[in-house]
Amino acid sequence: MELRRKFLKGGASAALLAPLLGTGLLVPGRAWAANEWKRNAFTARSSADALKNLGVAAAMESRDVVINAPEIAENGAKVEVEISSKLPNTRSLLLLADKNPMPLCAEINFAGAALPYAKVQLKMAETMRIRAIVRTADGKTHVAFREIKVTLGGCGG
After folding, report:
1. Which of 7, 19, 82, 135 could lock 92 by a disulfide, CB 3.0 to 4.6 Å apart?
2. CA-CA distance, 105 to 127, in Å (whole number)?
3. What is the pLDDT of residue 141?
4. How many CB atoms lie under 10 A from the CB of residue 142?
5. At a CB cut-off of 8 Å and minimum separation 6, what does 62 contact?
6. Cα–Cα dist 124/100, whole Å
7. Which of 10-24, 27-41, 53-67, 104-118 bottoms out in mean pLDDT, i.e. has the lowest?
8. Where do the domains of the chain lie, and which CATH numbers do they carry?
9. Phi-psi region of 88 (alpha: psi -120 to 50; beta: other; left: phi over 0)
10. Distance CA 80, CA 42 (A)
11. Over the Cα atoms of the chain, what is R_g?
12. What is the pLDDT of residues 80-131, one digit of tens each?
């Protein structure tokens, strides 16, 4: 009976706080710190600036970084891209769409023996090259490129 009361009390508190989380008025401290830390990279107007803000040095092209995406996207508002890495000790995947207003689309970090794979939906205004960059535990960076033709723009076009 006591456990049930605690559960109901906790549920009521969560229900009252949920709208504040949804509006952004109540932001968990750790998440806020992470957002501030990457803000310059995610708001950069060029791929070069985004990579510079992330501290990514020149990357060498690798067949071990795999991008699975359509050659032609009929609707640029929703382009599904899969990225995976066959490189040992992959620690992060970065996805950039070079001609988007803010090219850095995603950064996914991995720990331990996690499978370095991600499926991301992009919004692309026009035909462009995307790039996936992999960072490994030893500090090396590897890159793969893929051209995607967009027939109907997704960013207001």
Report:
1. 135
2. 16
3. 94
4. 20
5. 87, 134, 142, 143, 144
6. 7
7. 10-24
8. 2-31 (no CATH), 46-150 (2.60.40.2470)
9. beta
10. 20
11. 19
12. 999 999 999 999 999 999 999 999 999 999 988 888 999 999 999 899 999 9
